[in-house]
Design goal:
The structure is a single chain. The chain has eight helices and seven strands; from the N terminus they run αααβαβαβαβαβαββ. By secondary structure, the protein is an alpha/beta fold. Strands 3-2-1-4-5-7-6 form a seven-stranded mixed β-sheet, with helices on both faces. It has a single domain, classed as Rossmann fold. The model has no long low-confidence stretch (mean pLDDT 97). α5 links the parallel β2 and β3. α7 runs parallel beside α8.
Length: 208
């Protein structure tokens, strides 16, 4: 199921500027290898959230080859930090190369392994935590990441409409986990949440 009507999405992708050759290279690789990335429409939104919230410390749970992290990193000041977590070594190697060539590697820290285990080993609070791990772990992300955000921080999750499968009569395991995550973010008294129906659905949860 299409979340956004294809002509509207085509229009939006047509009107946005494409100025960064590194992002263009990432998008081309994603298309060639069928690798899932948030895409430029969501990427621009992530970039804006950094600027709006004056974020200085960002954690990404599930970074792939660094596409969304690159959008975050470009928005940070030089003193800011984006922490990438990724299970696959080859993806982190690509991310490191793109961050280096994009001249933002000084803002990035790269961790290989299980994202939630890495989170437990990190100190301090975060301004933004971006969640894009395996969908079955989404409820666990909420429980573990929520307490690590500062007051006024943002918990952002990708794929929360899951190709429209959230309205299936018989949801599979991944969909059930996303439904549970969505329930948690809206029922928690600690967060004020919204879901933006762009691309595959992105949730924004503001910590009280």
């Amino acid at each position: 199921m299409e979340i956004v009507a294809a002509p509207i999405e085509d229009y939006l992708n047509h009107i946005i500027p494409r100025e960064d050759p590194i992002l263009a290279e990432m998008e081309a690789r994603a298309g060639e290898t069928d690798f899932p990335i948030v895409g430029p429409l969501v990427g621009r939104l992530l970039h804006q959230f950094v600027k709006i919230t004056h974020s200085r410390r960002i954690l990404e749970l599930g970074s792939g080859f660094g596409y969304s992290a690159y959008w975050f990193g470009k928005a940070l000041e030089d003193s800011g930090e984006i922490i990438l977590t990724e299970f696959q070594e080859e993806n982190l190697a690509l991310a490191k190369d793109w961050f280096q060539r994009g001249e933002i590697s000084s803002r990035a820290t790269f961790h290989q392994g299980d994202a939630l285990e890495i989170l437990e080993g990190l100190d301090g609070e975060f301004d933004i935590i971006f969640n894009d791990v395996s969908k079955t772990h989404y409820p666990e992300v909420f429980k573990k990441a929520g307490p690590r955000l500062r007051s006024g921080g943002l918990l952002i999750s990708d794929n929360v409409l899951w190709h429209g499968q959230v309205v299936d009569d018989q949801p599979d395991e991944d969909t059930h986990s996303i439904l549970e995550y969505n329930r948690l973010i809206f029922e928690s008294p600690d967060f004020f949440s919204s879901i933006i129906p762009i691309r595959d659905g992105i949730s924004i949860s503001l910590k009280n």
